[in-house]
Amino acid sequence: DIQMTQFPSTLSASVGDRVTITCRASQTITNWLAWYQQKPGKPPKLLIYQASHLQSGVPSRFSGSGSGTEFTLTISSLQPDDFATYYCQQYVGSPPFTFGGGTRVEI
Amino acid sequence: QVQLQESGPGLVKPSQTLSLTCTVSGGSVNSEYYYWSWIRQPAGKGLEWIGRIYTNGRTNYNPTLKSRVTISLDKSKNQFSLNLTSVSAADTAVYYCARYAAASGFDYWGQGTLVTVSS
User: What is the pLDDT of residues A25-69, one digit of tens each?
Assistant: First the structure.
């Protein structure tokens, strides 16, 4: 199975900060990577798919980049609504699909 | 707007079978464009993909759970279901159903249902 490693596991930031989260795959996944945002008591919400494509309705301050084994999620100017946990997930080829361990963005 | 809703018992005894159903509205489980998946999340922990089913009934399961998992489809009710046998406390989690699109991943999720395994 492909292992996904996210870092940092926790990130402290302030409103207006530029925030970057990194996700690394144990083998190449080309660009088959998605990013999700999860708030307490809620299901994950798809933000980015195919590494860099913004899901409809997601604010443009979110962006994704990378290919192969190294990927980043960037929030250009952190807003109060962005404090949450973020997960990466690979979906290359056949299952099993795997998620990163999550990055909690806190004040 | 596609909506998914999980239903089923919130408490299951050890060694018994966990059974959940996901009802889909605003979309069809008969669509050739999507797979229908189950994902779980223990309290305070990360996400674990359990398995998926396609409209033709073809399934894929997480190898770590494969011997205990069955996912099935009921097109007449626009539902799909999860059975997990021989449960233990380690299976206590919030269980989500989700729609999977090959291009974009898991784009629609249910609200999740907490299943506790306890005697």
Answer: 999 999 999 999 999 999 999 999 999 999 999 999 999 999 999
Assess contact for A2 and A62: CB atoms under 8 A. Answer: no
Tokens of B3: 């909506």
What is the reported pLDDT for A93? 82
Helix, strand, coil percentages in chain B from 3-state DSSP, rounded to 5:
5, 55, 45
Mutate to test the interface with B, among A91, A92, A103, A104 (most CBs of B within 10 A): A91
**pLDDT at residue B39, rounded to an integer:** 98
Cβ contact B53:B97 at 8 Å: no
Contact assignment for B105 to A87 by CB distance below 8 Å: no
Pairing of strands B113-117, B93-101: antiparallel
pLDDT tens, residue by residue, B100-114: 999 999 999 999 999
What does the block give as tokens for B110? 């249910």
Nearest to A4 by CA among A33, A18, A24: A24
